[in-house]
């Protein structure tokens, strides 16, 4: 894994998913386990370098503020990794606390966290941001109160019926949160 957070995640997460798949389906061999665990560990160590000193995770691991969407991705990935390798619970707890603290009083997460290339749409509006972060947190099971508040906000602020991407994000969030 190399590059920015996005590039690192796009190479590290598939390794995590494959290890989990091989384990669940009984296809993991000792040789594959050794190789794949090394790859997951390498990806994890690289991802840790993107933690922002202000909280959360950002694109380059510099002094830029944390990004809500990236921090949600990191938590989701940490959840998927925890059955494979030992994760630093302090990093998990810091990131989770920072992300929950970013949640607005009415239950949503504000938009504005876009990819550094400027063409990402996850942070385009509050519904997309909230749906994605809710989906990630629901997957982890680490912030049930925040998920409940966000689910209520999603239900009360329906996505524009013509925005299929946002509808899909909200549907996934609600399905996992339920």
User: Approximately how much helix is present in the residues?
Assistant: 55-70%
Class based on secondary structure composition and strand pairing: mainly alpha
Number of helices: 7
The end-to-end span amounts to 34 Å
Average of per-residue pLDDT values:
93
The Cα radius of gyration reads: 16 Å
Major β-sheet profile: none
Q: How would you describe the shape?
A: globular
Strand fraction: under 5%
Low-confidence parts lasting 5 or more residues at pLDDT below 50?
none
Total beta strand runs = 0
SSE string: HHHHHHH
Indicate the multimeric state: single chain
List keywords for this structure.
61% helix; 178 residues; 7 helices; globular
Structure notes:
With 178 residues, the protein is an all-alpha fold. 61% of the residues lie in helices and 0% in strands. The chain contains seven helices and no strands. It has helices spanning 5-24, 30-48, 68-81, 89-101, 126-140, 144-156, 164-177. α1 runs antiparallel to α2 (30-48) and α6 (144-156) crosses α7 (164-177). The longest helix has 20 residues, at 5-24. The protein is globular and about 50 Å long. The N and C termini lie far apart (34 Å). The mean pLDDT is 93.
Give the topology, please.
Elements: H1 5-24, H2 30-48, H3 68-81, H4 89-101, H5 126-140, H6 144-156, H7 164-177
Helix pairs in contact: 1-2, 1-3, 3-4, 3-5, 5-6, 5-7, 6-7
In short:
The chain is 61% helix and 0% strand. It is an all-alpha fold. The longest helix has 20 residues.
């Amino acid at each position: 894994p190399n590059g920015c957070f996005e590039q690192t995640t796009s190479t590290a997460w598939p390794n995590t998913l494959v290890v989990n798949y091989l384990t669940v389906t009984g296809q993991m061999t000792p040789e594959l386990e050794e190789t794949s665990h090394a790859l997951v560990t390498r990806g994890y160590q690289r991802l840790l370098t993107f933690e922002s000193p202000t909280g959360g995770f950002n694109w380059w691991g510099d002094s830029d503020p944390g990004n809500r969407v990236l921090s949600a991705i990191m938590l989701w990935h940490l959840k998927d990794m925890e059955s494979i390798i030992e994760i630093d619970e302090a990093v998990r707890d810091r990131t989770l606390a920072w992300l929950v603290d970013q949640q607005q009083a009415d239950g949503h997460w504000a938009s504005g966290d876009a990819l550094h290339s400027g063409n990402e749409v996850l942070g385009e509006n509050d519904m997309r941001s909230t749906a994605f972060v809710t989906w990630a947190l629901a997957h982890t099971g680490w912030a049930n109160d925040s998920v409940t508040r966000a689910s209520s906000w999603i239900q009360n602020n329906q996505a524009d019926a013509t925005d299929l991407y946002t509808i899909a994000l909200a549907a996934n969030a609600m399905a996992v949160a339920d």
